[in-house]
Amino acid sequence: MISDKKNTEKIGLFTQANREAWNEAMPRHQSVKKEYWDEQFKKPGRHILFMRNILLS
User: Fold this and answer.
1) How is the chain split among helix, strand and coil, in percent rounded to 5?
2) Which of 17, 30, 44, 51 is the most exposed place for a label (fewest CB within 10 A)?
3) Interior CA angle at 39 toward 34 and 40, to 5°?
4) Has this prediction a pTM greater than 0.90?
5) Nearest 5°: CA angle at 43, between 40 and 48?
6) 3-state secondary structure of 3
7) Closest CA to 33 of 16, 10, 57, 4
8) Are 37 and 55 contacting, i.e. CB atoms less than 8 angstroms apart?
9) Domain boundaries, the chain
10) Is the pLDDT score of 20 beyond 80?
């Protein structure tokens, strides 16, 4: 059985790798969808929530 400390370390490494991949991909996603989100934001009743630079709709 993996100890809690080793498990936590592995989760930390996975989390960091995931963060780095997300930080690389997100600018590309934003540039592709910029016009779409700008139009969506102008529509009445449309809600857009920003959390830690992550766009949720």
Assistant:
1) 70, 10, 20
2) 44
3) 95
4) no
5) 50
6) coil
7) 57
8) yes
9) 4-56
10) yes
